[in-house]
Structure formats: C-alpha cells, structure tokens
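Help wanted!
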Amino acid sequence: MTTKILTTRMDAHPTDSHTLSRYLATGGYEALTKALTEMSRDDIIEEVKASNLRGRGGAGFPTGVKWGFLAPDEPRYLVVNCDESEPGTFNDRQLTERDPHQLLEGIIISSFALDVHHAFVYIRGEYPKAARRLQSAVDEAYEAGYLGDDVRGSGFALDVTLHLGAGAYICGEETALLNSLEGRRGEPRLKPPFPAVEGLYSKPTIVNNVESISNIPWITSNGGAAYAAIGPERSAGTKMLSMSGHINAPGNYEIVMGMTWRELIFDIGGGIPDGRALKAWIPGGASAPWFVPDEHLDTIVSIDDVAANGSMIGAGAVIVMDETTNVVAAAHRILRFFAHESCGQCTPCREGTSWLEAVLKRILDGNGRPEDIDLLLDIADNISPGLVWPPLMTTICPLGPSAVSPITSITRWFRPELEAMIARSEVRVG
Amino acid sequence: MTAVISNWSHDNQERAKRIIASYPEKRSALMPLLYIASLEHAYVSDDAMREVAELTGITPVQVQSVASFYTMFKRGGVGDYLVSVCTSISCYLGGADDVLAAVESSIGDVAGEAAAERPITVEHVECIGACGGAPAVQVNYELIEGVTPEKAVALIKWLTATRPEVILTDEMQQLFGGRRSFEWGSTDSEGAVRPIPAFGPYGSVGGGSVGGGSAGR
Ligand SMILES: Cc1cc2nc3c(=O)[nH]c(=O)nc-3n(C[C@H](O)[C@H](O)[C@H](O)COP(=O)(O)O)c2cc1C
Ligand code: SF4
Ligand code: FES
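Answered by r_m:
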C-alpha cells in the first residue's frame, strides 16, 4: 500500500488543488476547526510530539520537541522556511505552489498551538510563483476568516506575512534567515541562544520547514499515533524526495521510508537512462557525502540508516550520476556552489571553499599536481577537523563542513580516477 | 517619512506604506523596499538606497551593506530581460553548459558581463529549484524547465523579436520548455514586467489579476 499525506490533493486535482474552493471540497480546514474547538494548545503539541515528525529542512530535529523549547516571553513568532536552495531540492516549491492552503492551515494550527499571533514565510526570491500562489491563499484565508483578528470566531488572532529573499543560499540557515527577515545581511548567528529562546527581534521564535508544517493538518486530524505508525520508527511519516540527474523519471516522490536505495532508484525512479550503469548518487543534496553502488544499493532509505553509512537524507534531494559522469567535474560544480554561497564570516569556510574549488579546477584543466589529493584533504580537514561523520565544525554554521562532502567522496570512492587525471596532467606538464 | 518617495508612483508609495506596516519593526521592510525602489529606478541605484534608508530609519551605508549581500539586488547593468541559466549540479548533469554556451553565442555576450545597453542580460546561476526539469532557465525569475540548446536560442530570438511586456512562465514553458519537475496546475495569469520577482505586494506584476492588496495586513 502506498501511503500519501501531502500530495493526495494535487494528484487528484491537477488543475485547481491550490484554490480555497478545492481545498474546502476535499476536507480542508477541518483540522483547524478541530484544533480550535476540541483541542487545547498543549493537546496539539502533545500530538505533534507523539507523531515523531522530524524536521524536513535537513537536520531532522523532532518538531514537537523543538516546540517544547519555545520560551514563554511575548510576542513570539513562527517563521516558515521556504528558502529551499540546496542544489537538487525542489519539493517545498511543489508543496507551496500546488497546495498552499495545506501549508497555510499548518501555519494557523501551529501558531494557535504555540500562541503565536504573527507568522512569517520566508520564500526564496527565485520562487515568485510559489509566493504568488501562497499570497492568493493568504488573501482567500483572510476573506474567509481563517486569518485576521478573530480566526473563525475563536477569538484567536493571526497575521501571516510573506517575505521574499534575494538570492542567498545561506538564508536557508535559520539564524541567517532571521537576520535577513530583520533587514540585515544573511549571516548566521552563533548558537546558543537558539531561536526558540532568542529569535526574530530577539523574541522566542520557532523556525520550521515547509514540508514539516504541511504535515500538521494531517497529524491534527488523524492523531500523532497514526502518523508515528507510518514507516520506520525513527523515520516516521512520509517524506518528499526530489530525484534528479541521470534518472529516467526525475521528479518529486512522496515515499514511506524503509525501502532500499536499489528500489528507490530503479523501481521508483525508473533506473538509469539508456541502460547505462549507475556510478554514484548523492542521497541528500549537495551537502551530503555520496553513495556508490558497490556499497550502498541495499542500504535502507531512512534518516538513521543513511546517517549510519556516513551521509544524510537532508532535505531529500537524490542526485543520480551515471557512468559517463566526470566525478571531478561534478565535485567541482558543487564546490563552486559552496564557494559562491559562503557568507564569509568564518575564515576556514570563506578561504577553504574557494581554495578547494580552485584546486579541483586546476586538476580539471590538466594542471593537477601529485600533491593535490593531499592538499584537498588538508584544506578540507581545516574546515571540518578529522573529516568524520557527522562533521565536526570550526565554523559558525554547517555550510563550511558541508562543502567538504564532495572532497571526501571523490577521494574515498574514486581515488584511482582522480589520480589518473592528475597523472595525465604530469605527462602534459613534463 | 514618505516625503522622500513622493516622486514614486502612487501605487508604489501605497505598497511601501503597506509593507512597512506589515512588520513589527520597519527595518524588516528593507528587502521588499529595495525591490520596489528598483522598480522605480530600474535597479538599486544610490538614490534608491537613500530612499530606502530614510524609510527604514537606517543609514544609506547600512542599506548598501545589506543590498550588496544579495545577488538579486542588481546595481545596474541589467537589461529588460534577465536570462538566468542554471548550471548547478543537476542541470550540469543534464547538459546545462551547452544551454549556457548556446545562449551566450546567440546574443554575443558573456554570462555575467554587464550589458546595460543590451535588452538581454545573461547570467549563470546556482540551483533554482527545478532540478527535476533540468536544464532550467529563468527569464526575469519566471521559470522554464527542460530547455535544450536549440530551444534556448529560440527563446533569445523570441525575446529580441517580440519584446514581451509581461514575462509569463506558462507561455514560455509552452514555447521553449520540455520536461517539468512536476505538474504545474492551472495557468498563472501573472508575470514579470521587470527583472524583479513578480510578486504582487512588491509590485512587479503584470497580467490578469494583479494581486497587490494584502501585504499590509
Ligand atoms: C546552509 C544551510 C542551509 C539551509 N537551508 C534550508 C532551507 O532552504 N530550508 C529549510 O527548511 N531548512 C534549511 N536549513 C535548516 C534550517 O537551519 C533549520 O534547521 C530548519 O529550517 C528547521 O526546520 P525543521 O525543523 O522543520 O526542519 C539550512 C541549514 C543550513 C546550515
Ligand atoms: S560556515 Fe561559512 S556560511 Fe556558515 S557562517 Fe561561517 S562563513 Fe558563513
Ligand atoms: S540544479 Fe538546476 S535547478 Fe537545481
């Protein structure tokens, strides 16, 4: 049986799943009514705890536990993270464009539970359509009394404001996002204090991902236990995976975790185009260490199994590379991203990412040197000491340590290829 | 407070007021106001930054420090159409470098180079969240998925020949796109009138139902 929570409406109603009329006709806002009339704030938080929902923004932190940390001062804020900029990820875009009321109902229920009266959605500037669709939903919700001074006659007041970013991946990191929302440079803050204690305008703030919040209406309607019963114990519920690269059926898939990577790539993703061989895949976006067929095809797709094998599910981006891929060029492409997106606050990240990019570039250009592999590892070690998993940090945020993933991956799994490329350079130079 | 923007269009003055009122602290309006100011000035000019500084109660230097952090706040050198070719990992695996090369040679420009007098500016960008429909391209941040080098050249010719007033994602997808990351649902009647995100409350929106009303609530 395939269980779907987030994508049922958009699948059944391909043209108008984003409208209020369709949402209401398919059970929409019934969870909110239940929350407002039958449940206390604590009841909702308890259900979310019981659901074992783990944050979908990358770190996998249990949502209910995070909510429990929210400090008591007022005002307090909910900020929804729709910055989605990790290369390979495009599932928050689908959830926001295709079912904006589901997200909005999640925001309203969560705000009620957290006693928040002003919620923000931070949407990356490159997603204007998602912003338009969500703004239309917000407008419809105000008109129908789901937002405003007196939500559905309950006395609960809530405003929702959308905020567009302007092209900076780092603003997906929650404290950088809060700085950006305050009208500042998107530079991550040192933690602690965590946002739940000192967040937006130094007030208690919950930051949650779009997919996390989109699950809240279902959990409210069906109960936390029902959600926890789906999938492996510590990877409960469904997960949106974005599949891209050399795969026959790229796209977003709402899956229940627990299958093998072989099933995911070959059955769900339809395998590799033109019968070519699989060379490697990235299980969780550009930040994640790579997997290879000889080692990982029978590994289970779950947050913990992937972590135990030295990588992460992250925000759910599966990037597939076939045998024609030049892995050094692919690694360079990812390092170029990190070098471009480093905010520059920490020296190891600012200097290290650019340096790694430059060394990979010279190898690609046929100017590699025999010592370059050691040099790559040495620079990487300065950013993330010991090159262990989960990574250790010398930096304010995890962006720097993420940037070493392609380096550890190609030196570990494709060293002969890297050496051969460097050897060819020596012939040419010599 | 709003005297400083008395030369803005009435609509943009209203938008600015609503946006400032929608945040607990006015400095939060800085990014939206930079978008509106660049509608007025065609880009984030010195005047734009002075006006936004006044509106948000900080100094122009502070505004500049923030604006320079974000790649979408352009300090000039951008034509009427900003063509952004994604060359991040998934698009790269799907042949994006060939798309970029085709676009560059078809307008005789180099990506990233300022081209103020040209109607079309080309840049290569990092992932734009359309990796399932790689390679992906945006025009004024409106998306086209599944672009080939040939289709990309046709896109440039079309922009040059027809100079569309409003850039509509569905229209471009129909004409120049291919495989999508997912079904898009019904057609979007709003589109970009400038190389600024087409989001009603911030102003840069053309087409059927212009949004606009609600950012201030
Ligand atoms: C460099 C970096 C980029 C991030 N980008 C995003 C993002 O685009 N979207 C997101 O939801 N979380 C992102 N995160 C994670 C957030 O910091 C935060 O953990 C998350 O939004 C919390 O939501 P969740 O608990 O619902 O997952 C990023 C983290 C880092 C370090
Ligand atoms: S690790 Fe990199 S991105 Fe993160 S705060 Fe430091 S310099 Fe900025
Ligand atoms: S890599 Fe090009 S859209 Fe994601």
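OP: Thanks! One thing I noticed: The radius of gyration of chain B is 18 Å.
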